[in-house]
Design goal:
By secondary structure, this protein is α/β, with parallel strands linked by helices. The chain has three domains: 57 residues, Beta Barrel (OB fold (Dihydrolipoamide Acetyltransferase, E2P)); 149 residues, P-loop containing nucleotide triphosphate hydrolases (Rossmann fold); 62 residues, Orthogonal Bundle (Ribonucleotide Reductase Protein R1, domain 1). Helices cover 27% and strands 25% of the residues. It has nine helices and 15 strands. Strands 10-9-8-11-15-14 form a six-stranded mixed beta sheet, with helices on both faces. A hairpin with a 2-residue loop joins strand 1 and strand 2. Helix 2 packs across helix 9. It starts with a strand and ends in a 9-residue tail after the last helix. About 5% of the residues have low confidence.
């Protein structure tokens, strides 16, 4: 019988089978010998008599962090405040999603606490122009909840974001029966307190929502050469650069840098690109 892995703990896997029953299964030893790691979201075949996972289906995609497979949409949750909104972190998350060819969406939470509406309107307009869907959400007033419900229906959606941005609060608003434990933001630490400890798939409207552990830092799993291709706002101009391998940093006749000068690419976005680039190495320097 086929099924999907909902969660894992201590070598056991919670699998929702094709009859909508949840079974606790163990993997065959073959997976360990072949160094195959099963993750939440994997489509698997289980033996009904022994409750063993005997086969894992080919993955549509796979994310290292959060550690999950076969998602349709990645939803990046950023808060307007507590923790403060970071355009650098947002650009990093979007580049990460683009590298894995997963459609990124953005939810800006805690908008009831928003003090600078114009600042966020500019961000939202810019993101919309480069093809990123943005939804403003308040857990207090429930503004944006209907739009989020529409986005999440009939899909496997993974939430991604810092601790304390409101992922668990949003999940409880969408699926009260999930009863996700809600953390709080620590002003002394400058970050949220972790509540979700592991990736968990929660059934929702003919699909699933993946609640994931929050984090404040993310190491990009690719090279400096890849970063330019992961900035969605560069593609339109990069094809006109003189050099095919242009990194848009020090090269001459760079169409991306020209677009920045002419105001067609956000200066802030380009500055974020330069900052992220500093932490990456060139593919030729990997040894």
């Amino acid at each position: 019988m086929e099924g999907i892995i909902l969660s894992s703990r201590y070598g056991n896997y919670e699998v929702l089978d094709s009859n909508r029953n949840i079974e606790i299964c163990k993997p065959r030893g073959l997976f360990r010998h072949k160094h195959i790691k099963l993750v939440v979201g994997d489509r698997v075949v289980i033996s009904e008599d022994e409750l063993l996972i005997t086969e894992v289906k080919e993955r549509k995609n796979y994310l290292l962090r959060p550690n999950i497979a076969n998602i349709d949409e990645l939803v990046i949750v950023m808060s307007a405040i507590d923790p403060d909104f970071s355009s650098l972190l947002l650009d990093k998350f979007i580049a990460y999603a683009h590298f894995f060819k997963i459609n990124p969406n953005v939810i800006i939470s805690k908008i009831d606490k928003m003090s600078n509406k114009n600042f966020f309107d500019e961000k939202i307009n810019y993101l919309s122009k480069i093809g990123v869907r943005v939804i403003k959400y308040s857990n207090i007033t429930k503004e944006g909840l209907e739009e989020i419900q529409e986005l999440f229906s009939n899909k496997i959606v993974a939430l991604m974001g810092q601790s304390g941005v409101g992922k668990s609060s949003l999940l409880n608003a969408l699926s009260p029966q999930s009863k996700r434990e809600i953390g709080e933001f620590s002003k002394s630490l400058g970050r949220g307190k972790h509540q979700t400890k592991e990736v968990v798939l929660i059934p929702y409207e003919n699909g699933f929502i993946a609640d994931t552990p929050g984090f404040s830092s993310l190491e990009l799993p690719f090279y400096k050469d890849d970063l330019a291709n992961c900035f969605m706002n560069f593609a339109k101009y990069a094809k006109d650069c003189k050099f095919n391998n242009c990194l848009h940093i020090q090269e001459t006749f760079c169409a991306v840098k020209k677009a920045v000068e002419e105001g067609n690419i956000s200066c802030e976005s380009y500055e974020n690109y330069l900052k992220l680039s500093e932490d990456l190495i060139l593919r030729k320097d990997r040894f």
